[in-house]
Each structure stands twice: as structure tokens, then as C-alpha cells.
Specification:
The chain is built from 3 helices and 5 strands, in the order αββαβββα. With about 120 residues, the chain is α+β, with helices and mostly antiparallel strands. The protein has one domain: Ubiquitin-like (UB roll), CATH 3.10.20.90.
Length: about 120
């Protein structure tokens, strides 16, 4: 296990990913409804699943995971697949679609805070 000793500042998870997950691929995320708007871009290993990628997108835009869909072209990407399964081996643009009426960002944060305050109020009664 000494091969994974923390001598370079990387976590064990990062070292395992480097060892078995393949090359880095840059993914560029944009809104489906506004393709000129880049949300963010991030490097992922080719062996990472889209479930992991979608989770990172949800964290970045502060949305619920189940409210998001990732699309490559016009096709929705199923979460169990890995980047390499979809033939993604170089920089790729993916569209992000959020369910109609779903809250994200500050609106979602405000809703969660209100729910927490309500739960706390009820617990004190």
C-alpha cells in the first residue's frame, strides 16, 4: 500500500483514478436552452461515469441531481455509462437541461433554508 502513500498531496481516490481511470478529458457544459452560455468546464478521467459527472454539474449549478439531464447533441446520456463508453476521448461540449419548474441556485438555497427553519420551529413546539 506504500504506492498510495500521501507524498504528493493527492488523495488515495485521486491516485486510484490516475492509475485506472484513463486519460483526462475536458468537458464543457452549457445550457441547452442557451447554447452560447458556458456554465463551466472541468477535466474528468475517461473512466468516470456520467453519474459522477452529473453530480458535479448539480453541485456547480446548485441543483437537485434528479432535476438535471446531460445531453450529447440531441441525445440524453444515461448515467451508468462512462465517458469512454460514449466515445468521449477529447474536449467535448455537453448540454445541461433542467426540468421545467425546477429550482436551482439561490432559489433552491432559499427553499432549503425555509424548510430547515420550519422544521426547527416545529421541533421546538
Amino acid at each position: 500500500m506504500t504506492a498510495f502513500a500521501n507524498t504528493d498531496g493527492k488523495t488515495t481516490e485521486e491516485k486510484l483514478q490516475d492509475e485506472i481511470a484513463g486519460e483526462d478529458v475536458l468537458l464543457v457544459f452549457r445550457w441547452k436552452h442557451a447554447p452560447d452560455t458556458v456554465l463551466f468546464q472541468q477535466k474528468f478521467k475517461q473512466g468516470v461515469t456520467f453519474e459522477w459527472v452529473k453530480n458535479k454539474v448539480a453541485e456547480h449549478i446548485q441543483a437537485n441531481y434528479h432535476d438535471l439531464s446531460l445531453l450529447m447533441g440531441t441525445k440524453r446520456i444515461p448515467e451508468p455509462f462512462c465517458l469512454v463508453d460514449m466515445g468521449i476521448t477529447k474536449e467535448t461540449v455537453l448540454d445541461v437541461q433542467i426540468e421545467e419548474g425546477a429550482l436551482y441556485g439561490e432559489a433552491l438555497r432559499a427553499q432549503v433554508l425555509a424548510e430547515m427553519e420550519e422544521e426547527e420551529r416545529l421541533a421546538q413546539e
